Fold this protein.
Amino acid sequence: MSGLFSRMIWNLGVPIVRRKLNKKYTYSFHEENPEPEEGFLLLGNHVHHADAFLMALNLKQPVSFMADREAASFSSYMGGLLTGTIFRSLGTEDMKAIRKAHTLINRGHSVGIFPEGRRSWDGRGRSDLHKTARLAKLFHAPLRLVRVEGLYLNQPRWAAQARQVPVDLYFKTITLNELDTLSVSELSEVLAPYLLHDEIKAAAGRRVEGDAFAEGVENLLWLCPACHSMDSLKGEGNRIVCQNCGAGSLLNGNLQLSGSPFADLGEWNEWQGNHKFEKKEILLSFEAELSSKREPALSTGKGELILQDGMLLFRIENRTMRFPLHELHSYNVLFNSQFYFTYGTKRFCLRTADKSLYKLLQICDALPR
């Protein structure tokens, strides 16, 4: 796509996006220094589906953002192609997207990347700073760093309802001369306040308008700290209740807890992610559908999904497919109930009717690699 066409689409699209976002969010921009005049690499934290759109409102030149192809509907995909979006598919096509981004940078265009690769579940950034710094040095372009604050609180990806919270976006430029003087370790330290920002820890004192703050929390939390039962938690209004032992705690709009051993939702999420299980314990067991877009012949339809002893089992009729968790890679959860993963050279998708698959994602993340 030519630079002239990109700018035309950008100039037409930004006012339309601005009008829509103005109806939903109250936001402010804070610039430490000006945006580079030449093409740059934008790096930011990723806590909400509107991150890139809000960032775009404060950018003077078109930016080709990298986005997940599997998360895009057909209309979003076609619109993304018009705006220069770099679509990536987790797995074999990931490096292809990086090479395309590198080519655009070399041609003087600007590219936007969320290094974490997936939207945060608990508002905390978990980017690999060392790898990101190495990528930035490889691209060898000015950096535009962006930290989004407050947007996660508007509607955490697990939540059933939206809230109203003021949003702040902080921008900082690292010039090419500054980039050249920084080692990878030094650059990592510069990136940390932007890419490792913790929305929940920074939420104290933010004004949050809304109610039923706990509804949908079972999409995130799956382990009770009182009785250690799994999948027994339920959000009811502003309360998180264990349906097994009856233990309950209150959750406010800033995602702080009372009546709980944890100060906030992030601490609870961190604790359950580090939990050690009994070797033969069944961690998941419910109906699911397994499919593979790239290999339609491998699509199996509905069956029983079981997670036990480090093995993901999918049983359908008299057939059992086995996927060792430590051999899964490029995995992600979309829309709470879709788990995409690569096993060997094949790409699969697990779907459930109404069960969150975040637990499976968190258990995979905890495995030594």
About this structure: The two ends are 39 Å apart (CA to CA). The first strand starts at residue 27 and ends at 31.
